[in-house]
Amino acid sequence: MTSRSASPAPTAWRRTAWVAVVVLMLHAVALLGLPLRPPVLPGPDRQVTEARLIAPPPPPPAPVTRPPPPPPAPAAAPAARPARRAAAPPPPPSPPKRTPAPAGPDVVQVYPAAAEPASTPAGPNDGQSAEPARELAGGPTVSHASGSGVEVADPAPAAGQSQVHPSVQLRFDMLGQRGVQPWKGVFGHLDWQQDGQRYEARLAIKVLFKTVRTQTSAGRIVDGALVPERFTETRRNEEVAQLQRDQGRVVFGNGAPAAVLQPGAQDRLSVVMQLGALLAGNEARHPPGSRLAIQTVGPKDAEVWTFEVGETETVSVPAGQYSARRLTRAPRRPDDYRLELWLAPELGYLPVRMQQTQTNGDVIDLQLRDASTP
């Protein structure tokens, strides 16, 4: 009888295979980094079911509402610093030795002037433009500066520094030319009347026997200075300017805006006589090179006119030969003119010649023919 060798049981073989598979899986898990779970080895008589509990995803977080930021707290006031003890002031330095400035001509303080429209030349005192100034009233104002350049204002001439001329009548020959045509048969007549309290002046320009232009000035005399109150100029029509001292303004009859009246303001006729009064009152106070600045009122405007005092010259006019001080108002713009006055000391600084020169070459030259008392 033949005997058979027993073969391994199928169950043992299967277990060996499963162990090998598990070992391979563990190595794979170790290599791949997968999570390790203990394997469940099924037995031959049972089936193993693996159940996993999956947790539901968490609910989304509720939106967070941020509370409004609290208002900023007021800044704390800085702590007061203790007052520092004031240091004692240093002793004043010793005054430097002053070197006397060289003597020089007085210079007048000139108030700024505005531009003026061009005007037709018709006499020694033609139009300027209005210039507001300080609201004051009084006698003529002359401002000087010493040779060092320090300005010293002189609000009005003191008693005895201005001397108004007595009543007189002056007659002039009018020479010069307009373009290439010389003036012929033209005369001027200046009538000056004063009684120590009030004055009246009238300048008339005549061609043959016809008056073509007049200027008049009337006002008071205060402390030897002229204080004009009314100025008129007539060509075809009369134009009036009122110098209202109590209100500090100049009012024009043609509707032009009022101008502020400066102290010592004159008009275009009285300024000639007032300049002579200043030189007659104190000639030494106005040496050559000094300047006189006076607001001068016309029929439409009130502007500061500045005259430079020149040397004494010898002037020949139809009335004779005179030594005279020349005062010059230089043109300020291309359309302005030069005005020159020659005032003779032997006639009490009356004008013996008045000349106006336009930039285009036209000249109006009034030269004294004779002088007489009324």
Which series of helices and strands comes N to C?
Answer: HEEEEEEEEEEEEHEEEEEE
**Helical residue percent band:** under 10%
Question: Might you state the CATH topology name of one domain?
Answer: YmcC-like fold
How much of the sequence is in beta strands? 35-45%
CATH architecture of one domain: Beta Barrel
**Globular, elongated, flat, extended or rod-shaped: what is the shape?**
rod-shaped
Give the class from helix and strand content and strand pairing.
Answer: mainly beta
Radius of gyration: 55 Å
Distance between the termini: 199 Å
Query: Overall mean pLDDT score?
Result: 74
CATH class term of one domain: Mainly Beta
Can you summarize the main beta sheet? Answer: 16 strands, mixed
Strand segment tally? 18
Task: Count up the helices.
Answer: 2
Detail the poorly predicted runs: 1-8, 34-51, 74-89, 92-155
Could you explain how this protein is built, in words?
The protein is mainly β and 374 residues long. It has a domain at 142-372: Beta Barrel (YmcC-like fold), CATH 2.40.360. The protein is 9% helix and 37% strand. The chain has two helices and 18 strands. The protein has helices at 10-32, 270-281; strands spanning 142-145, 151-154, 168-178, 181-182, 186-194, 198-207, 210-222, 225-234, 238-244, 249-252, 259-260, 266-267, 291-297, 302-317, 320-329, 337-344, 350-358, 363-372. It has a 16-stranded mixed sheet that branches. β10 and β11 form a beta hairpin. The longest helix is centred in the N-terminal third of the chain and has 23 residues, at 10-32. It is rod-shaped and about 170 Å long. Mean pLDDT is 74; it is low at 1-8, 34-51, 74-89 and 92-155.
